[in-house]
Sequence to fold (333 residues):
Amino acid sequence: MATPTTAPATALADRHEDVKYAFAFKNLDWEAYHRYRPVYPESMWHMWFNYHATHGNGSFAKAHDAGSGPGTAATVVGQKFDKVYVSDAGAANLATAEATLLPKEKFTFHQGPAEQTAAWLPASSVDFTSICMAFHYMDPVATVRAVAETLKPGATFAAVTYGFRLLFPGQPRAQALWYQATSHESLRLMREGKLFPAAVKGLARAMTGLDFVAFPRDLFEEGVKRVYVNVEENEQKALYFVDHEPGVWDEAATFVAPTDVQEYVQDPTWGRRADAAWLRGFLASSQMGFDDTTWALSAWQELEQIVNSGPDGRIAIEWPVSITLATRKKDAQ
Fold:
């Protein structure tokens, strides 16, 4: 398999339609993106749809997938709901989704950021809203309020973020080397100014999982469910893959409420076996600017030696994952 390449990091901002939206690229190889990213496992969808069926209005009539990218999650949501609204801030992202999602009559497409959801979707019109691996690029306060306005009483708000701090079960040295390489290179890219502000802010939020998102009690039922997958209870900074360096990047605030329900589960289906080329591809798919400079690091080269020494030249990896499930207040007007 050929090693994936990325555009020069200095051109990162120029590749965007609008640098306010860190994943609104003018064009992106979505086939490669899907090749090097985890598949949302059946266990997640079962959790989400079961929660929706048992905690809220349970209607599978209308859904909205916000920050949809090429429609990755909307494909599955569309198998459960009668009608799906698909939105994204990026025109190219949305065009890919529109060309991909079938049947056409099931989906309605809208270009616009999630923060403006209430400007185009009617109030109290949607049974289920999902945000998959995109929330960290949004203004969480504005997004939560805009989405809440469009949700019916008892509707579900579901979100997921997986970490770039890969886990290597049974391979502590490989796990340490991965963190060493990703932290070193991320800090280098930040110090060199190759990540524009929205990208740095998004990275900081993503490293909290979804703990940077608050669910106000005037909008959502008490007992918001926060699920941490492949994370040990009381583990600190489980999704961090970059050392905090004051003056280089600011940590995101977290808003886990005392009434939120926190669950910790181990789920190997959030995992796969990967060769060295795939590990490069996964890291490059972040679009942060990882390239040959990264692969030349002694830590990275040692990591690849460990991977290549395996019986099939691959190694088992897992993702730490953060999931939130919230129910719109049932007495909402």
